[in-house]
Amino acid sequence: MDGMDNNERRDEIFSRAVRAGKRTYFFDVKSTRGNDYYLTITESKKRFNDDGKYFFEKHKLFLYKEDFIKFSEGLNEAIDFVRSEKGDFEEARTEREEASQVVAETTNETAFTNVSFDDI
Q1: Distance from CA of residue 93 to its chain's centroid?
Q2: Domains by residue range for the chain, with CATH
């Protein structure tokens, strides 16, 4: 099997993974034994040991439905503050993507050297 027991499968109601750069965020809706819902938000980052082997560092937040409104209000307020202080996220994301594209194009142009078989 996939390592999950029946309780874990039964308890998970909805799951959404969001890849964001070097991190992945997981939003999982689960049910309690009393059939109530709660949300877990997990941040996962790929890390490397000294020997070069990788592992995933995870941080998890449990959010219960009675806190959803206050949590979303606080989150929206913090996001609005950043937008007002630092500008629109889409604009910043587009600039970052354009810069990454320039780096990728430059890297691709210089990544290969033309070698003639006559040179060997």
Answers
A1: 15
A2: 6-111 (3.10.450.700)
The pLDDT of residue 61 = 96
Task: For residues 7 and 4, give the distance between their C-alpha atoms in angstroms, rounded to a whole number.
Answer: 8
Residue corresponding to tokens 């993507």: 97
79, exposed or middle or buried, with CB in 10 Å at 0-12, 13-18, 19+? exposed
Main-chain dihedrals φ then ψ at residue 32, nearest 5 degrees? -85, 175
56 close to 45: Cβ distance less than 8 angstroms: yes
3-class SS of residue 92: helix
- The pLDDT value recorded for residue 110 is 45
Can you list the residues of the chain whose pLDDT is less than 70? 1-10, 91-120
CB distance 27 to 15 below 8 Å: yes
Structure tokens given for 16: 């959404």
Burial of 71: CB neighbours in 10 Å, binned 0-12, 13-18, 19+: middle
- Token pair 């009393």 in the structure block, residue: 34
Consecutive H or E run containing 24: strand 23-31
